[in-house]
Fold this protein.
Amino acid sequence: MVREMARRAKAAQPGLGTAPAERRNEALERIALALEERSAAILAANAADMAAASPNLPGPMVARLRLDERNLAAFVAGVRAVAALPEVLGEELAAWERPNGLQISRVRVPLGVIGIIYEARPGVTVDAAVLCLKAGNAVLLKGGREAARSNTALGEAIAAGLEAAGFPADLVQVLPPTREATAELMTATGLVDVLIPRGGAGLIRAVLEQSRVPVIETGTGVCHLYVHAAADLAMARAIAVNAKCSNPAVCNALETLLVDRAVAAAFLPAAGAALRQAGVVVRGCEETRKHLPWAEAATEADWRTEYNDLILAVRVVDGLQEALAHIGTYGTRHSESIITADEEAAARFLHQVDAAAVYHNASTRFTDGGEFGFGAEIGISTQKLHARGPMGLAELTSYKYIILGAGQIR
Amino acid sequence: MVREMARRAKAAQPGLGTAPAERRNEALERIALALEERSAAILAANAADMAAASPNLPGPMVARLRLDERNLAAFVAGVRAVAALPEVLGEELAAWERPNGLQISRVRVPLGVIGIIYEARPGVTVDAAVLCLKAGNAVLLKGGREAARSNTALGEAIAAGLEAAGFPADLVQVLPPTREATAELMTATGLVDVLIPRGGAGLIRAVLEQSRVPVIETGTGVCHLYVHAAADLAMARAIAVNAKCSNPAVCNALETLLVDRAVAAAFLPAAGAALRQAGVVVRGCEETRKHLPWAEAATEADWRTEYNDLILAVRVVDGLQEALAHIGTYGTRHSESIITADEEAAARFLHQVDAAAVYHNASTRFTDGGEFGFGAEIGISTQKLHARGPMGLAELTSYKYIILGAGQIR
């Protein structure tokens, strides 16, 4: 069944991918209108999802599942914001002439059919659909079972919007919320160009392990902040608190603080107090606990853990080299930051740390499509193939070569 | 065992990836010298491979396995040519400032550890190794069993060159030529960043189906030439013969000729005769055989076949739309060409055909890193993720974001 849906998506995609920008933007506007028109039905479907939800569903999951008028208005505004983003398709990425007279250009085109596998977050349904559509792609949406009714209602609104703009509804299809659907999607090679899993580490690992379709790995972030010997300690403290506390549930939040031994005594007591006051549980190395006797003892496992919570691992290191070695061993290549006034140390850190985003004197929390100025994002890639870091519209495209000749043979 | 080799490659790679261009180029020069110095040992190893080869080995495979002084000189020249290519690492791909003052730049970095799986072609061992090294990557080479002694000898020369330049030999490792090694390589997630299979359709399909590590699909090309109603027929004939015959074994060779009904009678007799004279067996549709009574009858399977041989499928189509539909159904998204003097028809073809390379009035045989001016290529991608078409040095890289702040928090 999913294979058949994928086949229809693949058949429908070229019509969207070769349509002019105005027609794709018109489709997004029609989707925004359809979401507005159908808001009562969408909220009713969501209420039914909420009513059917297990009382054992964890609090954060319930919060992500629930929709209200304000959420819907934000979805609609989001759709219009994506429509207003600059066009990416057709962009000439490079052009040159060969000695034999062939004119070669490299032009941006859609990826094709994109599969999104996610959990019970109805917002992703709208978000992912419109980003994929704007970049000329068809999309297959496999959301969580708990949000099934909400996703179906949102999918119907998107379908109505597409059809009102003269496009086939097959361009955006909500898959059944079953394991079988996921399994079929992961084996739809030749029909689906890429899968993007969005969600917890377990979901992403499962997709990576099982998919036969190319996957873009997203998400896991064991992010570090290294307070160098030459750091502005007030800046370092403010950034540590911000990076840990401003949204601990997300992948760009700080998980491990590395403190140079040279400034440990000057930095840790005040920084520790500020973190503690913000509700952070500190798990420190032995050296850290000399300065923060109230801190819990960190174990090897702490250096590898993405807490996604108000918990912070803290380790005192002997200089830049040891900080680099720690990040090389325990980092997940997501976001890493150094706080220092020493330009040479900063340059070494930025050059040598292998991560999607490396920072000097700033919070890791900026690794985000919106914060980077992409207007929107479909996720944050932690792999190196195709896309790295925040993925916006450009990362949902490929390219082709157009070669103009005058009868050249080889 | 392969996992342990991959671990060593991963540990060695950052030292290469962060080394200045001169040091990497010096390593390539040392490899060139080591290949020259060890030429007798390499040729002796190759002679042993040839002696051990099964008498049932097909002719073309024997030809690819055999090395002589001339081949080795070509390898050495190839290494020096790669060393002379422009540096790609560190290139600033984009840079901008955010309203909050963050300075963001996107900088080219190596992919990391690359695995190459290929057949009994010792040339690939040198070729792939130096391209990967130039772009700052470590490489694991899994060649065919028939070339095992040649590959070991070549690998020893490469290792000697690396060490002479002060780099660890772990950067280029020749894996055992066993199925177990391939299987281990395909499950080395977290250690190997990408696998590139090079070889026949069977090899590529097996890697795509079995690998847990991201794969770049290369190779299969059912390439079409569409002779439009407004084609220069002499040009079309010359290109058809060239695209089919100049090297029928390669993926950018022509496999299916589509002839517009409007010019079938004017084009087919002379073009058919030219192809026949060049030794080409034609398998035509019913309409084609009215003009070429000597042609064999094509079946549905012919439209899907990459012959890699002097065989050509020929079909008469009713106009551009039918040509596009045929290519959409049977093409492998590799290289497609239209011959026409009608600019509007050409524009429609170039825009609507979904392939790595789309041509107007030129032979499909130009889809090649060298012909595109990349200096060298590691293969031709037929997927859309990461890289499409000929892959040169740039396609062996990723990027990272460098963000400079002054204490920004979010």
In short: The radius of gyration of chain B is 24 Å.
